[in-house]
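User: For my dataset I need records formatted as: sequence, then structure tokens, nothing else. Please produce one.
Assistant:
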Amino acid sequence: METVKLKELIDQMTVAEKVGQLVQLTPDFFAQGGEITGPMQQWQMSEDQLFTIGSVLGTHTAEQVYAIQTSYLEKSRLKIPLVFMADVIHGYETIFPIPLALASSFDAQLVEEVAKASAKEAAEAGVHVTFSPMADHVKDARWGRVLESNGEDPTLSSVLTAAYVRGYQGTASLAENKQRIAACVKHFIGYGAAEGGRDYHTVDLSDLELYQNYLPAFQAAIEAGAQLVMTSFNTIHGVPATANQPLLQEVLRQKLGFDGLIISDWAAVAELMAHRVAADRKEAAKKAFTAGVEMDMMSDCYLNALEQIIHAEPEMNEQLNKAVFHVLSLKNKLGLFEDPFRGLVQGNLAPKLVQETRHLSREAAKKTTVLLKNQALLPLQKKQKVALIGPKAASKDLLGAWSWIGKPEAAVSLAEGLSQKEIDLTVLSYPDGEMLTSTFIDEACKVAKEAEVVLLALGETSEEAGEAASLTKLSLSRKQEALIEAVSQVNPRIATILFCGRPLVLTAIEPLCQAIMIAWFPGSEGGNALADLLMGESEPQGRLAMSFPRAEGQLPMTYAQLSTGRPLTEENSDQKYISRYMDEKNEPLFSFGSGMGYGRCTITHTQITNPQEKDAPFEVSCTLKNEGDVPHTTTLQLYSRDDVTEVARPMRELKQWQKIHLAAGEERQHTFYVTPEDFAYVHSDFSTKSDPGTISLYLGFAAASAKLIGTLTI
């Protein structure tokens, strides 16, 4: 539909119909036969109002979408189709590894492929918009929603956030490509900085921190074409984001240049009353709408108050029309006016499981699993006597949070995956989520004593990581730690496979394990992928996108810590009055970027070459050699430190990275290209520029271990 016709359609609408377009409901409101449902009664909502609604979230099947859209179009005066949205976070029916795991791939192409496959499954079920990607910057693993993030580095997050958007939306018209869906980047902004890691809690950020670390991933998503932005639950600068006019208008609209639809998070408009910045629903509606929130997700504030507000203040009609235009424009971009069912065919609404999508899930799990420690224990050898023990041994709880359409029973457990391999396997499982008993630990010791290698499958349940899953303790349960301690006494050849949605504190168990593998929540094909990795048929390629702390008291933490006036160094490590803990080291147990494969790579012949021509890049080169006797894929990481700056800057920052595959014994040169613009940062006047001076460069395979190779001058 042409823009002029969209505006003509708006002119035909009553104020009530316009307001309806700005409201999003769940399918529960649409009962068969059109009778008044429980939710409608609770909201004091009429049937007339129901058939002005603009959007539905959380449908479960294509059949449900078809039925709701059909009923709606029959009863709606203007026949404006509904737009259906859903939380398609890391897959729809086929579940991929959680986003934090996908970030650990350091692989934008993989993320884009996963998003594309997720979009296809969701689109075939009638979904038009996904509430993804999550661009929140995170430094505190106590916050359960780190599971949905791209980790602690803003550069990595920016690259991957843009990849998600490209994967979901593609490059062609959404109206033409009905196997793609629109992306909604979230949560704007600061949600990941909740104080104490407690979900929905207060956030207090400096403007410098906001602009330097929290906005870049959103900027990348917007530049990639994200069609929607979702506001966050938290306060920012003392005002809830959902009512923060400077944030939404000056920062999001003007500075970032976003011209799409702004939607609230679940009931966030009504929660302005709980924040105590609004006395009632009418004031909440006015504050959110004035701030710039254009769609009210799952509250009745706009529905039952906004019309009254508009009639009392006619000058707000212009803003109302603009908000409605953004809603209708989204529907138009999706081609819904021409095809309200967007590819759905009534006789073909059953879910479709595509084998190639399952294959991608398996490959993604292999590329995201992180091998943190290996004292020549892995890979397993054929015919080896292996004991697989623990609550995760045969568990199908592999999907993680936000896998609401995925079926756990269709997931492949680790025991199922290993049972297909040529090993002498004994499985001793335990009900996942239940506290281990002393009897089980005793039995585990008996089984372990007879094995050549012990695989301990431990970790969190899906309910223990995700939204509303904040923790103060990040270690394994005391019983799981006791299992490791007991087994290590009878057989030290332990490889611990950890299923989790966040970094854990492994300080107590790390010395007891000869190998540690982070499986995350690996998705539908997790068991098969892990079996391939454990047998050496594939190599673990994951590298930590978020550091694993030594203790919870270090949080929040990041490898990119700022310089201090009293830094801890090797030379002053015996002194007291420096920035250090009295009872623990400063650095994490496993830093950002950490991980290994089955090969061993070295870096030699490093060189920084100044450009020969004006505006040409600097060349940062090195020679890589796989010292192992098997093929090896490594992730080479380039870090920098601006030696003198206007404002305090990190001790080192990730600038570029590259996944490099080397055959056994292969030696190869690699070069990074950097320009002065790569070292730009946010100054005290909020300008972004680089400073003349020297830049120290570091090369390596993790943030903590990257070595200084020299400096360049810009």
